[in-house]
Amino acid sequence: MKIAIDAGPLDRPASGIHRYTQSLLAALARVDAENEYLLLGLHPGSDAAGFGARFHERRSRGRLRARAGFVAFRDGADLVHGTNYVAPFRARIPSVVTVFDLSVRLLPETHPLRRRLWHRLLPGLWRRACRLIAVSEHTRRDLVRFHGLEPDRIEVIPLAAAPRFRPVLDPQVRAELRRRHELPDAFVLYVGAVEPRKQVTRLIEATARLRRAQLRWTLVIAGDGSPGYRGRVRARCKELGLIVGSDVIFTGRVSEEDLPALYSSAQALVYPSVHEGFGLPPVEAMACGVPVVLPRNSALAEFYGDCSLMVEDASADSLARAIVSLAERPELRARLTARGAQRARARSWEDVARETLSVYGRVAAEGARGRRFDPAASRGRLIAPES
Question: Which of 295, 82, 344 is nearest to 197 (CA)?
């Protein structure tokens, strides 16, 4: 097969979708020695080399979403995979689309207006796709419930921790990381976007409660967000009497190379997001030997319910109590660390790649059995030819 893949997310290193696309392509290169791949939508100067000789780049000045189907068809692809929610607007070949979550539909107030407007177009595009890949059963149920998509067109393929996420035990490496980022010896970590859906302000409020409980673990926030929201988060620190740079440290985006050592140096990862389709930081932290605190919601409960310290809500009081429990109960930390490591080892990106290849194969096989793709059909189905 010749498979076209939207590699545009590789140009956005801060996003979880970048990490999905990067990890999937790297794993496909490891497990697939037969198929060819066209990487669509790369900007000039993007760093996407190194996947192998069977991966051919198709660069452009703009995003190829509007023309992805045409480019894939022109270059002889058997199908096109949209890695970032989007199927081609027009296509002469079948498409597969990955959908991570429906938070824009369910929690529109936590997303910027431009994203909300763009996501209004997506259900129509999803109906045109031959298969959808949901990263959790939770997302699959949401697609069926809120958009009426056929369950048999949606494949659930959960994600995994990339191979680089392993415990970093070398004290010199960890000391160098703390020196460069000016981190203390003991800290609670948050990794991810600094945006309303992640409820970072709740974690800051929990940190203020930890001070009253005489627990001096610093909160480290590793991630970026819009300047306006970052300003509101810092203002909340000031309102609560927390000192930025001491009680709360904002590292900004941390490089992929530094993340394993950052996870490994933390006392715990706390990820108070109100809604996730999967949630990569928790499994990455678990792979690095760090206990995790999570709210019991969305796909977080689906994947991490038995290997994390779950709170029934993400209130500041609940988060603070959970962190204090980890500090005061070493046996709890040890148990969660062991369960989390087991959870992280249970699945690899090679598994994700093989299951994704299986989806590609089924879509291509339907076409090879004499069916044709009808881009004008409302559901985007592969249909039998007319007699």
Answer: 295
